[in-house]
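RECORD TYPE: inverse folding
INPUT: structure tokens
STRUCTURE:
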């Protein structure tokens, strides 16, 4: 992660985040979601099966500002990074343990907010993917076309998060890569 450079808008440019990373003997899963991720990374589970589980779990997004308590959803601008090929990703982590090394290197992004991964998927603009655990031994990049395909295949009317959170996304900062979720009507 030492080659990463962040710009003032909360984005990072890097080629480090790679795709699916192989299992690392030093990795110890700290949650059921991480156990599923490790299974996917070691080919003990199909990635499609994992992604269906992923969208039904909570992840942490990093922010460069305190979101407030309760979070002011209209002020949220999650950290993103841009790969050399122009592909942009929202940075997410599966646990606080995975966030710590990232924040140690980039203390300006010390604020984390737990969010339902499905809410993130539903809220992303069409050209933005999701990076899960960048810089960690176990993680992956879910490229924008795959995220968009998932968005079109999910019945969002049955989304487990509450309507207040979904409605708040309509005013999220577009510079952070979030867009209003589609209408369920």
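DESIGNED SEQUENCE:
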């Amino acid at each position: 992660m030492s080659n990463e450079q962040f710009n003032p808008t909360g984005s990072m440019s890097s080629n480090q985040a790679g795709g699916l990373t192989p299992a690392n003997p030093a990795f110890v899963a700290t949650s059921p979601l991480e156990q599923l991720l490790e299974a996917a990374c070691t080919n003990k589970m199909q990635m499609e099966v994992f992604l269906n589980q992923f969208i039904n779990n909570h992840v942490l997004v990093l922010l460069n500002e305190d979101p407030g308590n309760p979070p002011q959803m209209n002020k949220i601008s999650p950290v993103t990074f841009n790969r050399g090929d122009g592909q942009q990703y929202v940075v997410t982590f599966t646990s606080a343990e995975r966030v710590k090394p990232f924040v140690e290197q980039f203390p300006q992004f010390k604020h984390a907010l737990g969010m339902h991964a499905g809410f993130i998927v539903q809220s992303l603009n069409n050209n933005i993917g999701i990076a899960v655990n960048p810089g960690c031994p176990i993680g992956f990049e879910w490229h924008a076309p795959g995220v968009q395909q998932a968005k079109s295949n999910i019945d969002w009317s049955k989304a487990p998060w509450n309507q207040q959170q979904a409605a708040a996304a309509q005013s999220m900062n577009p510079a952070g890569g979030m867009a209003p979720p589609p209408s369920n009507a």
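NOTES: The CA atoms of residues 122 and 151 lie 6 Å apart.
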